[in-house]
Amino acid sequence: MIARDAIADILLALAVLVVASASVGVLAMRDAYQKLHYVTPAALVAPALVAAAVFVEAGLYENTGETLVALLFMVIAGPYLSHATVRAIRVREKGDWRPDPEDRAAAGEKEQ
pTM higher than 0.90, yes or no? Predict the structure, then answer.
């Protein structure tokens, strides 16, 4: 029992470390696009470590299954939420999420 507790504590400590380092990254970055890169570990890696800690501590029980289902939803929804956040940032900055005609023309010129 003591080994399980120790492993679960280590996993939870790693989750806290991931969230703390992601928070420092968010504080250090200049704009919202850069900050969004540091949100991903806190949104995906830390919950995976917490789910692993629950699995180690509880074994195969109903709570473990619920934790894994919640983790699955977070992993599936994470990229969609990041994409929606980037679009919202772009709309706030430029008024529209689509590229400007000048940007499209410049991109077309680079490809040729």
Answer: no
